[in-house]
């Protein structure tokens, strides 16, 4: 299940449904191809012709022709002399389009400055979302560009029998419940220590083990930490649905017959009730919500949103830490 947030973009604002993704950098929206304006704005794409604050990035923009190539966001000059981007995600999906500048307009008196976004013309949007809200530590992520130092979300409990999509919560700024949160520090990696298998822009935390019921699994804490080559980092990712573990950890999971606890530095824990081990994938089929990270082609441990249900997750960028707090997310708005 993707975490969808509705945000007002442009002047006047057009509401866009975007996937909240702490695992990626660039935010992008699905743009309407036709040049002729139409009203009301389309429900499945953003119409640039209706916004007075929209502009495109030309080829000579420093971001399009950086002195040092930015491999996290490949750019090039297209046939119209506009800055073209291409972006691969861990699950193999691909997005491309032109880089543009546009505001997020929350009210007549509150808006962001023009931010660099992707304007995708060829992506087929999902039934629910029209873009991605990139929230990682990259310089082009939404928090970095908008100067947001804290944000948090609460993932509602999935109910396979529910006829309506459950609603959670999303905060930009301080969370009113944060005094009850447990915090774990983010692991940082200087540029001089960058490793080939490491994602330096991810929210990497110090995981130390997994417990099933009262039994702690025989997994070395080093399995959850980056090796000399960067493999093994543990990241909190709202954009990935399930949790993925490297083989050394996945092979020890076995049958989950009790509550599962993910253990982190400073005694911080994420507790998962045994009733939430299995995911309903349709057709009466239920699968374990944990997979091998090898399936994604990344040698990392990823805590997906399936194991963040009924949990406040706060990203405190100023203090470089992540907070967790138990909640009934359907009642946290």
UniProtKB/TrEMBL annotation:
Active site per database record: 21, 237
InterPro entries cross-referenced by the UniProt entry: Aspartic_peptidase_A1 (IPR001461), Aspartic_peptidase_AS (IPR001969), Pepsin-like_plant (IPR034161), PEPTIDASE_A1 (IPR033121), Peptidase_aspartic_dom_sf (IPR021109), Plant_Aspart_Prot_A1 (IPR051708), TAXi_C (IPR032799), TAXi_N (IPR032861)
Membrane spanning stretches: none
Signal peptide: none
GO MF annotations, alphabetized: aspartic-type endopeptidase activity
Record-level GO cellular component terms: extracellular region
Domain called Peptidase A1: residue spans: 3-333
Keywords: Aspartyl protease, Glycoprotein, Hydrolase, Protease
GO biological process assignments: proteolysis
Family: Belongs to the peptidase A1 family.
PANTHER family named among the record's database cross-references: ASPARTYL PROTEASE FAMILY PROTEIN, OS07G0603500 PROTEIN-RELATED
Record protein name field: Peptidase A1 domain-containing protein
Native source species: Nyssa sinensis
């Amino acid at each position: 299940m993707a975490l969808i947030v509705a945000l007002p973009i442009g002047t006047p604002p057009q509401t866009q449904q975007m996937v909240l993704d702490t695992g990626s950098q660039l935010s992008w929206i699905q743009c309407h191809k036709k040049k002729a304006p139409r009203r009301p704005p389309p429900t499945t794409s953003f119409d640039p012709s209706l916004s007075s604050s929209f502009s495109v990035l030309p080829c000579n923009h420093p971001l399009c022709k950086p002195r040092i190539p930015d491999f996290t966001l490949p750019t090039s000059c297209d046939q119209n002399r506009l800055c073209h981007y291409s972006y691969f995600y861990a699950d193999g999906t691909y997005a491309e389009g032109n880089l543009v500048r546009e505001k997020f307009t929350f009210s007549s008196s509150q808006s962001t400055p023009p931010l660099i976004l992707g304007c995708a013309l060829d992506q087929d949007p999902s039934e629910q979302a029209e873009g991605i809200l990139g929230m990682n530590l990259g310089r082009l992520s939404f928090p970095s560009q908008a100067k947001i130092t804290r944000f948090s979300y609460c993932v509602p409990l999935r109910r396979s029998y529910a006829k309506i999509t459950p609603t959670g919560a999303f905060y930009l700024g301080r969370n009113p419940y944060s005094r009850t949160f447990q915090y774990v520090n983010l692991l940082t990696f200087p540029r001089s220590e960058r490793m080939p298998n490491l994602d330096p822009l991810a929210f990497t935390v110090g995981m130390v083990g997994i417990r099933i019921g009262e039994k702690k699994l025989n997994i070395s804490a080093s399995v959850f930490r980056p090796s000399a080559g960067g493999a093994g980092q543990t990241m909190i990712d709202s954009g990935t649905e399930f949790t993925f573990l490297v083989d050394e950890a996945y092979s020890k999971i076995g049958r989950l017959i009790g509550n599962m606890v993910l253990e982190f530095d400073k005694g911080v824990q994420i507790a998962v009730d045994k009733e939430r081990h299995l995911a309903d994938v349709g057709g009466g089929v239920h699968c374990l919500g944990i997979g091998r990270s090898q399936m994604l082609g990344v040698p990392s441990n990823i805590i997906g949103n399936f194991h963040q249900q009924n949990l406040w997750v706060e990203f405190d960028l100023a203090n470089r830490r992540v907070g967790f707090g138990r909640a009934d997310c359907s009642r946290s708005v």
